[in-house]
Amino acid sequence: MSRMQRIAVYTGSAPGNDPVFAAAARAVGTRLGEAGIALVYGGGHTGLMGVVSDAALDAGAEVFGVIPQALVNAELAHPRLTSLEIVPDMHVRKMRMAELADGFVALPGGPGTLEELFEAWTWLQLGFHAKPVAIYDVDGFWQPLLAMLDHMVASGFMAGTFRDSLIVVHTPDELLAELAAWEPPTPKFAR
User: Edge-to-edge strand order for the sheet containing 83-87?
Assistant: First the structure.
């Protein structure tokens, strides 16, 4: 079992339309703090991003934000993080978050959350990193996506072993246990 020191959380800059989403984000942030695990995230103060970061800070976690200058200019940066790194664009942001984190988890969110999740997961498949990638399935939010992934496997566009490498959890304790116990798959093009 590996010791997770920093976990990157991808989630929405909006709160969603059901309080269960914010409750889950709060629970994850709180549990990270209780476990002494730092949060790495996009640096914003709005939506679920703000909820998870505030909960982690309130629980004593270090919180590392990485935010593009354009979003700082739009006054979206969280004002009280342990560290806020301002980068030139989204490409640098994602790379820097990947460097800082020992694992990745997607909570509910929109297109940006999907894009970050899939990039981290694709990088795992290609062998660019060997860090766990997880989905925190709040009230069935990710079930349509998981069905699509199963369809990709059935259609021959993804190996079942790679699909199995994606962690799917429903509680903060399950998340931490699965991230710690995870073993990397063989990269797609490994020789």
Answer: 83-87, 63-68, 38-41, 6-10, 103-106, 133-136, 167-169
Distance of CA 141 to the CA centre of its chain: 15
Is residue 138 within 8 Å of 52, Cβ to Cβ? no
Question: CA–CA separation, 97 vs 188, rounded Å?
Answer: 23
* Tokens standing for residue 19: 């309080």
Q: Which tens digit of pLDDT belongs to each residue from 99-150?
A: 999 999 999 999 999 999 999 999 999 999 999 999 999 999 999 999 999 9
Cα atoms in the 13 Å half-sphere on the side-chain side of 154: 6
- Domain count for the chain, please give it: 1
What is the reported pTM?
Answer: 0.95
Note down the domain range covering 67: 6-177
pLDDT in tens, 143-179: 999 999 999 999 999 999 999 999 999 999 999 999 9
Q: What's the CATH number where 127 sits?
A: 3.40.50.450
